[in-house]
Every structure is written in C-alpha cells, then in structure tokens.
Amino acid sequence: MVKFASKKRWADYIILGLFTFLIFCFVFENYIQLPSIVAWLGRWHPLVLHFPIVLLLLLIFLSLTKKRISHILFLIVTISTLITAISGFFLGLESPNKGDLLIKHQWLGISLAIVTTIWYWLHQYKFYNKLVLSGIKIILLFLIGFTGHFGGMITHGENFLAIPTNTENKIPENPIIYRDIVHNILDNNCISCHNPNKKKGGLLMTNFNALLKGGESGKSIIPNNPEQSELIKRLHLPIENEKHMPPEGKTPLTNNEIKILEQWILLGALDTLKLNDLDENTPLSISIKKMIRPEASNTWESLPKVTDKTIEALNTDYLTIKRIANGYDALSINCYLPPEYNPKPILDLLPIAKNIIELDLSGLPLERNEFEFLATCENLEHLELDNSTLTDAYFSKLKRLSKIKSLKVYSTKISDKSIDVLNSFENLTHLYIYNTEIDENGLKKLKVEKPSLFINKGISEAIYKSLELENDSISKKLP
Question: How far lies 465's CA from each of 271, 383, 457, in Å?
Fold first, then answer.
C-alpha cells in the first residue's frame, strides 16, 4: 500500500514537471532556441497526437457512463496529453512567422493539456462536484473538436474542413496573369504546404514577394529563367522522387498549368502583366486561353460520359488522369516512366480514348500497340512524345488525329519522311522538333504548307519567340 502511494506521488511529480515545463515554454517562447535533436522530437507531434485524443475521449465516455476509471488510465492520458502539447510547441518553433491557424491550434492545444491536468488533480484529491466535473468534460470535448479542426486546416489547407460549395473562381476576360492565373494554380496545388501555418521547406507561396524570395532550397522563381527556378525543376522531377512537387499522393499539375508557370517566369515573372499585354500567338497567351476555354465547352459537351470511378480505377502511380475543367469529360493524362516499363496502363485507356484531349507520353519506350492506341484518340489536341521511341513508321499511324493543335516530338527519330503527316494536321499551331532528323528542306516544305505554324527548334528560339510580343509573322522569324 505504501509502495502504491509512493508511485502515485512520483506520478504526480512527473505531471507537475511536464505541466510546469509546458507553461514555461509558452511564456518564454520568444527566448527559446532548441538544439537540433530537441527540435527533431517536435516532428513526432503529428504521429503521437492521436493516442491521447482517443484515450481522452474514452476517459470522458467512461465518466459519463459512471464506470470506474483506472488511475493508470488517467495517468497515461494526462502524461500523453502534456507530451503532445510540448512536442507541438517544439514543432511550432520551426515556423518563425506563425499564421493565425497555427497560433489558434497551439493555444487550444495547451488549453486542452491544462484542463486535462486540472481534471486529473481533481480526481486525485477526490473532488466530485458534478457541476464542475460536467463543465470540465464539456470544455474538453469543445477543445478536442476545435484543436483538431484547426490542426486539419494547417496540414491540408484552410478550406479542407470547410463546407463544400459549387462556387468556382471565374477568370476575368483580361486577367492579371499572376493574380488570376498563377496564384490560382499555386493555391489549388501548392499553398496547402507553403503557407504561414505550414511553411514546408521555409517556402511561403501565399503572396508575390514571398514567392520570389524562395525557401531553404534557394530561389523558387528566377525571372526569365524557368530552367533554373527551383519550382519548375521540382515539377519536372519523376513523381517517385521525394523532392517532386506536389508530393506523391497529391494530384500533380496538368501540362498546361506547368506551361503557364514556365512561360510566366520566362517573361519576367511580373505581378502586373495582363493577358491583353501579350500577342495572341505567344505560348503564354495560348496556354491561358486554353485554361479559360470559352469556345471549348460545346465540343466537350459532346464527349462520351466518363465517371470519377472510372478515372480512379485507371489511375496508377505512374499514370495520372485529371479532368481539364470541372463538369466536363475532357481529360488530361500524364504518363511517367516506371522502373520496369509495361504498356498495359496505357492500353487500358482505350475505353476513354475519345475523352483524351491532352496526353503526355514523353520519355517512354513506346511500341506499335501504343501508337495504334494513340490513333484512336480522335479528340486529342495536345500530344507530347518527346524523348520517346517515335519513328517515321510509328508517326504515320497518327495521320488521322486531325484535331492536334500542339505537338512535341523533340529528341526523337522522325525525319523529313514525316512532313506529310505534319501537313495533314489541319489545326496544328505549335510544333516542337528540335534535336530531330528533320532538315532545312523539310522545314521549308512545312512552312510553305503552314506559314503561320510556330516551329520551335531549340530553347533560344523559344525565348526569342516569347519575348517578341509584337511579332506578326512567325514564319519570317524562323530560318
């Protein structure tokens, strides 16, 4: 009996010590600098927090049903709640500029630990006032709910727990490119991990100046230089790479969204540039209009219906499918090279072939069956086959794709033999053919048939074209 009393006394000392340390941390937060190993312990906060929450809810349930509560259970709940609050404090110190959500989450978390400790002490000293104890339980339920609520918004974005609505961000007719286009792309795909409440990698993307400043890995954006901009480099990493943005498990950006970011950076990454400031034939203007797509709705309405369940079933770790716009059955598909290539995921797309508007098969060792499948994608408008095994023989199979507007076939084996196929694409406006076997004679023949076609033969020409906003004749600028 004496030994049990002694153990209870030591337990009280542990709880008192943790409680005092927690209060000390929050009072002197601005003066605390944690050693790296202690800061690392804070990163366990998301892992350990579920344990005390479940036990605390169990404790409240047992007390409401007037069940006997074990002292050991009460002790474990109180200690684990205090440890969770302290680890959360350590984790919060990694964000020097805390947002409102993080501040609210931290204060609710410490309040939860304080009230739990008070309940423990009242239970220890056999304080059984029903009104007070009922009030404590109500307060605890309130704190558990709202602490979790703000915690969920920190990890998944401010709108994660908001009631879903059908409202969409409408893009104005003459949008400011950063505010109405670029920021919306970042908000939908990146800001949930790069905001004042969750500043992953020290990078903040909620405003223009912070975006230009960059994070721990360097400048996220280098104006006029998308190739060296950390944001673009990470978007192009293989999806299985731990540095790929967005991380594995989240929906990657579409090809068009990446193109908009690249072209915006190429033109200087300005926050005042408007769509009407661009020549209508510049790549950025075309990509933005493609996002707005007021003229495409009638075409898309005639596409076969495809359900979200079908899309989900066809998605794999190396093949992602997205609707180009909400409410439409037009699809954008990205394929990535797995460790061992298997054409099956591509060939399995046959039931939705008519819904595919954008398709990226770059870098894949494609064979005859894949190209025969491509020939069935009759509504395809944007196709990327760069760095693939494309040859003249395979390319000839794509002659029936009359709706192709943008085609990337750079670093492939196609030659002048494919000029007739290119001329058959009546709607082709953009062609990327650098590092192919098409020579000057083939280019001349192509320009005669398609004088307004923009032909990209290398990065220098791409930069030249993007910066020459007032160019009225693309063909005259190309050799």
Answer: 21, 21, 11
Of the candidates 462, 422, 427, 412, the residue with the CA atom closest to the CA atom of residue 443: 422
342: confidence class by pLDDT, cuts 50, 70, 90:
very high
**Are 88 and 106 within 8 A, CB to CB?**
yes
> What are the strands of the beta sheet with 319-323, ordered from one edge?
319-323, 331-335, 356-360, 382-384, 406-408, 430-432, 454-456
- The two three-digit tokens of residue 189, written as one number: 């795909």
Specify the CATH class of 293-477 in words. Answer: alpha beta
Question: What's the angle, vertex CA 408, arms to CA 301 and CA 340, rounded to 5?
Answer: 95
Q: Which carries the bigger pLDDT value, residue 344 or residue 459?
A: 344
Kindly list the domain boundaries of the chain, sorted by start residue. Answer: 2-156, 177-277, 293-477
List all residues 6 or more positions away from 319 whose beta carbon is below 8 Å from its beta carbon: 333, 334, 335, 336, 345, 346
Residue 376, pLDDT > 90, answer yes
| pLDDT interval class at 165 (50, 70, 90) | very low
**CA 391/CA 414 separation, integer angstroms:** 5
Please give the average per-residue pLDDT across 227-245, as a whole number: 80
pTM above 0.90, yes or no: no
Q: What is the largest CA-CA distance in the chain?
A: 101
Cis peptide before 172 (omega within 30 of 0): no
Tallying the residues shown for the chain, one arrives at: 479
Q: Which residues of 388-413 are buried (b: 16+ CB within 10 A; e: fewer)?
A: bebbbebbbbbeebebbbbbbbbbbb
pLDDT in tens, 256-280: 788 888 989 998 888 888 888 887 7
